[in-house]
Write a structure and sequence with these properties.
Blueprint (H helix, E strand, L loop, with lengths): L3 E5 L4 H11 L4 E6 L2 H10 L4 E5 L5 H11 L4 E6 L14 H27 L4 E6 L13 H23 L4 E6 L4 E2 L2 H5 L8 E2 H13 L4 E2 L3 H9 L5 H15 L2
Parallel strand pairs: 1-2, 1-4, 2-3, 4-5, 5-6, 6-9, 7-8
Helix pairs in contact: 1-7, 3-4, 4-5
Length: 253
Protein backbone atom coordinates (compact mmCIF):
# COMPACT_ATOMS: atom_id res chain seq x y z
CA UNK A 1 0.00 0.00 0.00
CA UNK A 2 1.25 3.49 -0.84
CA UNK A 3 2.57 5.70 1.94
CA UNK A 4 1.05 9.18 1.63
CA UNK A 5 2.49 12.37 3.08
CA UNK A 6 0.36 15.51 2.86
CA UNK A 7 1.94 18.96 3.15
CA UNK A 8 0.09 22.27 3.30
CA UNK A 9 1.94 25.43 2.31
CA UNK A 10 4.13 23.21 0.11
CA UNK A 11 4.95 25.78 -2.57
CA UNK A 12 7.94 27.37 -0.81
CA UNK A 13 10.09 27.55 2.29
CA UNK A 14 9.92 24.80 4.91
CA UNK A 15 6.98 23.12 3.16
CA UNK A 16 8.96 22.75 -0.05
CA UNK A 17 11.88 21.24 1.88
CA UNK A 18 9.58 18.78 3.65
CA UNK A 19 8.42 17.65 0.21
CA UNK A 20 11.98 17.08 -1.04
CA UNK A 21 12.97 15.02 1.99
CA UNK A 22 9.84 12.88 2.05
CA UNK A 23 10.05 12.24 -1.71
CA UNK A 24 13.47 10.70 -1.08
CA UNK A 25 11.95 8.51 1.63
CA UNK A 26 9.56 6.95 -0.93
CA UNK A 27 6.38 8.68 0.19
CA UNK A 28 3.73 9.57 -2.37
CA UNK A 29 3.03 13.24 -1.87
CA UNK A 30 -0.09 15.38 -1.79
CA UNK A 31 1.08 18.98 -2.10
CA UNK A 32 -1.27 21.79 -1.10
CA UNK A 33 -0.92 25.54 -1.64
CA UNK A 34 -2.61 28.48 -3.35
CA UNK A 35 0.00 28.90 -6.09
CA UNK A 36 -0.45 26.08 -8.59
CA UNK A 37 2.47 27.17 -10.77
CA UNK A 38 4.89 26.83 -7.85
CA UNK A 39 3.55 23.36 -7.04
CA UNK A 40 3.91 22.27 -10.67
CA UNK A 41 7.53 23.42 -10.72
CA UNK A 42 8.22 21.60 -7.46
CA UNK A 43 6.58 18.42 -8.74
CA UNK A 44 8.97 18.37 -11.72
CA UNK A 45 11.94 18.14 -9.36
CA UNK A 46 10.65 15.27 -7.20
CA UNK A 47 11.27 11.61 -7.88
CA UNK A 48 7.97 10.36 -6.51
CA UNK A 49 4.25 10.38 -7.27
CA UNK A 50 2.80 13.81 -6.53
CA UNK A 51 -0.78 15.01 -6.43
CA UNK A 52 -1.35 18.75 -6.48
CA UNK A 53 -4.32 20.40 -4.77
CA UNK A 54 -4.72 24.17 -5.02
CA UNK A 55 -6.51 25.51 -1.99
CA UNK A 56 -6.87 28.80 -0.12
CA UNK A 57 -6.99 27.76 3.51
CA UNK A 58 -8.16 31.20 4.63
CA UNK A 59 -11.60 30.08 3.39
CA UNK A 60 -13.30 27.63 5.73
CA UNK A 61 -15.27 25.91 2.97
CA UNK A 62 -12.03 25.11 1.10
CA UNK A 63 -10.64 23.46 4.25
CA UNK A 64 -13.63 21.10 4.36
CA UNK A 65 -13.38 20.49 0.62
CA UNK A 66 -9.72 19.53 1.08
CA UNK A 67 -10.71 17.01 3.78
CA UNK A 68 -13.25 15.52 1.37
CA UNK A 69 -10.63 15.18 -1.38
CA UNK A 70 -8.18 13.22 0.75
CA UNK A 71 -10.54 11.21 2.96
CA UNK A 72 -10.01 7.93 1.06
CA UNK A 73 -6.20 8.05 1.25
CA UNK A 74 -4.25 6.21 3.95
CA UNK A 75 -2.28 9.18 5.21
CA UNK A 76 0.91 8.30 7.07
CA UNK A 77 2.20 11.86 7.54
CA UNK A 78 0.34 15.17 7.56
CA UNK A 79 2.24 18.44 7.94
CA UNK A 80 0.18 21.53 8.77
CA UNK A 81 2.74 23.99 7.46
CA UNK A 82 0.60 26.75 5.89
CA UNK A 83 0.74 30.02 7.78
CA UNK A 84 2.04 33.59 7.70
CA UNK A 85 2.76 36.58 9.92
CA UNK A 86 2.77 40.35 10.05
CA UNK A 87 4.86 42.89 11.90
CA UNK A 88 4.03 46.38 13.09
CA UNK A 89 2.15 48.36 15.71
CA UNK A 90 -1.35 46.95 16.25
CA UNK A 91 -2.61 50.52 15.79
CA UNK A 92 -1.51 50.43 12.15
CA UNK A 93 -1.50 46.81 10.93
CA UNK A 94 -4.15 45.79 8.41
CA UNK A 95 -7.26 44.15 9.89
CA UNK A 96 -8.00 42.11 6.74
CA UNK A 97 -4.51 40.61 6.76
CA UNK A 98 -4.86 39.83 10.46
CA UNK A 99 -8.21 38.06 10.02
CA UNK A 100 -6.78 36.03 7.14
CA UNK A 101 -3.84 35.17 9.39
CA UNK A 102 -6.21 33.94 12.10
CA UNK A 103 -8.15 31.95 9.52
CA UNK A 104 -5.04 30.20 8.16
CA UNK A 105 -2.89 29.90 11.30
CA UNK A 106 -5.73 28.86 13.63
CA UNK A 107 -9.02 27.96 11.96
CA UNK A 108 -7.62 25.96 9.02
CA UNK A 109 -5.05 24.21 11.21
CA UNK A 110 -7.78 23.32 13.72
CA UNK A 111 -10.10 21.89 11.06
CA UNK A 112 -7.35 19.86 9.42
CA UNK A 113 -5.97 18.61 12.72
CA UNK A 114 -9.41 17.41 13.80
CA UNK A 115 -9.96 15.60 10.51
CA UNK A 116 -6.50 14.02 10.34
CA UNK A 117 -6.38 12.87 13.98
CA UNK A 118 -9.74 11.14 13.60
CA UNK A 119 -8.66 9.72 10.22
CA UNK A 120 -5.37 8.34 11.61
CA UNK A 121 -6.97 6.98 14.75
CA UNK A 122 -9.05 4.60 12.63
CA UNK A 123 -5.78 2.74 11.90
CA UNK A 124 -4.15 3.73 15.22
CA UNK A 125 -1.15 4.97 13.27
CA UNK A 126 0.29 8.12 11.68
CA UNK A 127 2.24 11.32 12.24
CA UNK A 128 0.77 14.83 12.35
CA UNK A 129 3.17 17.76 12.62
CA UNK A 130 1.79 21.25 13.24
CA UNK A 131 4.20 24.03 12.33
CA UNK A 132 4.13 26.68 15.03
CA UNK A 133 7.01 29.00 15.99
CA UNK A 134 9.21 29.88 18.92
CA UNK A 135 6.68 32.72 19.18
CA UNK A 136 4.23 30.10 20.42
CA UNK A 137 6.43 29.47 23.46
CA UNK A 138 6.52 33.13 24.54
CA UNK A 139 3.94 34.97 26.68
CA UNK A 140 3.16 37.45 23.89
CA UNK A 141 4.79 39.42 21.09
CA UNK A 142 4.43 43.19 21.00
CA UNK A 143 4.64 44.45 17.39
CA UNK A 144 3.66 41.00 16.13
CA UNK A 145 0.66 40.68 18.44
CA UNK A 146 -1.66 38.66 16.20
CA UNK A 147 1.03 36.32 14.89
CA UNK A 148 2.33 35.46 18.37
CA UNK A 149 -1.23 34.87 19.58
CA UNK A 150 -1.98 32.49 16.70
CA UNK A 151 1.18 30.48 17.33
CA UNK A 152 0.43 30.29 21.07
CA UNK A 153 -2.87 28.70 20.07
CA UNK A 154 -1.12 26.16 17.83
CA UNK A 155 1.38 25.16 20.53
CA UNK A 156 -1.19 24.87 23.33
CA UNK A 157 -3.67 23.05 21.10
CA UNK A 158 -1.07 20.53 19.89
CA UNK A 159 0.29 19.75 23.36
CA UNK A 160 -3.20 19.17 24.72
CA UNK A 161 -4.06 16.69 21.96
CA UNK A 162 -0.70 14.94 22.43
CA UNK A 163 -1.57 14.35 26.10
CA UNK A 164 -5.03 13.03 25.20
CA UNK A 165 -3.53 10.57 22.70
CA UNK A 166 -0.95 9.45 25.26
CA UNK A 167 -3.68 8.83 27.84
CA UNK A 168 -5.52 6.76 25.25
CA UNK A 169 -2.28 4.81 24.50
CA UNK A 170 -2.79 5.74 20.86
CA UNK A 171 -0.02 5.11 18.34
CA UNK A 172 -1.00 8.31 16.51
CA UNK A 173 1.63 11.03 16.96
CA UNK A 174 1.04 14.77 17.06
CA UNK A 175 3.83 17.27 17.54
CA UNK A 176 4.66 20.92 17.12
CA UNK A 177 7.60 22.50 15.29
CA UNK A 178 8.66 25.73 17.01
CA UNK A 179 11.60 27.25 15.09
CA UNK A 180 13.08 30.68 15.52
CA UNK A 181 13.94 32.69 12.39
CA UNK A 182 14.06 30.63 9.18
CA UNK A 183 15.28 32.09 5.89
CA UNK A 184 12.10 31.91 3.78
CA UNK A 185 9.70 34.31 2.05
CA UNK A 186 7.94 34.62 5.43
CA UNK A 187 10.17 37.64 6.04
CA UNK A 188 8.81 39.52 3.03
CA UNK A 189 5.17 38.64 3.68
CA UNK A 190 5.45 39.55 7.37
CA UNK A 191 7.30 42.79 6.51
CA UNK A 192 10.18 42.02 8.88
CA UNK A 193 13.95 41.94 9.05
CA UNK A 194 14.91 39.30 11.62
CA UNK A 195 17.07 40.57 14.48
CA UNK A 196 18.66 37.11 14.80
CA UNK A 197 20.36 35.13 12.06
CA UNK A 198 17.97 32.66 10.46
CA UNK A 199 18.55 28.97 9.80
CA UNK A 200 17.98 27.38 6.40
CA UNK A 201 14.59 25.91 5.55
CA UNK A 202 16.39 22.71 4.56
CA UNK A 203 17.99 22.28 7.98
CA UNK A 204 14.73 23.14 9.75
CA UNK A 205 12.72 20.53 7.82
CA UNK A 206 15.39 17.84 8.21
CA UNK A 207 15.65 18.40 11.96
CA UNK A 208 11.87 18.52 12.37
CA UNK A 209 11.32 15.18 10.62
CA UNK A 210 14.09 13.53 12.61
CA UNK A 211 12.47 14.61 15.90
CA UNK A 212 8.99 13.80 14.60
CA UNK A 213 9.98 10.19 13.97
CA UNK A 214 11.45 10.18 17.49
CA UNK A 215 7.97 11.26 18.64
CA UNK A 216 9.08 14.49 20.35
CA UNK A 217 6.11 16.76 21.07
CA UNK A 218 7.80 20.19 21.03
CA UNK A 219 10.55 20.53 18.43
CA UNK A 220 12.91 23.53 18.64
CA UNK A 221 15.63 23.27 15.97
CA UNK A 222 18.47 25.40 17.37
CA UNK A 223 20.33 25.48 20.67
CA UNK A 224 20.03 29.27 20.88
CA UNK A 225 16.23 29.15 20.63
CA UNK A 226 16.06 26.23 23.10
CA UNK A 227 17.93 28.38 25.63
CA UNK A 228 15.73 31.43 24.92
CA UNK A 229 12.45 29.53 25.22
CA UNK A 230 13.63 27.71 28.35
CA UNK A 231 14.73 30.93 30.09
CA UNK A 232 11.33 32.38 29.31
CA UNK A 233 9.81 29.96 31.83
CA UNK A 234 11.93 31.30 34.68
CA UNK A 235 11.88 35.04 33.98
CA UNK A 236 9.18 37.32 35.38
CA UNK A 237 6.46 37.71 32.75
CA UNK A 238 6.91 41.49 32.56
CA UNK A 239 10.65 41.13 31.90
CA UNK A 240 10.08 38.50 29.23
CA UNK A 241 7.56 40.75 27.47
CA UNK A 242 10.02 43.66 27.64
CA UNK A 243 12.77 41.56 26.03
CA UNK A 244 10.46 40.29 23.28
CA UNK A 245 9.21 43.82 22.63
CA UNK A 246 12.80 45.07 22.28
CA UNK A 247 13.60 42.31 19.79
CA UNK A 248 10.44 42.93 17.78
CA UNK A 249 11.14 46.64 17.45
CA UNK A 250 14.45 45.77 15.81
CA UNK A 251 12.54 43.90 13.08
CA UNK A 252 10.48 46.87 11.98
CA UNK A 253 11.46 48.16 8.54
Amino acid sequence: MKKYAVITGASSGIGKEFAKILANKDYSLILIARRENHLIELKKTLNTECEIITCDLSHEDECYLLCEKIKDKKIDIFINNAGFGDCGSFLHTDIHKEINMINVNIKALHILTKFIIQHMQQNNNGYLLNVSSSAGLMPCGPYMATYYATKSYVTSFTCAIAKELKDKKSQVYIGCLCPGPVNTEFNHIANVQFALKGISASYCAKYALKKMFQRKTIIVPTFKMKIATTLNRFLPRSLCIYIVSHQQKRKLQ
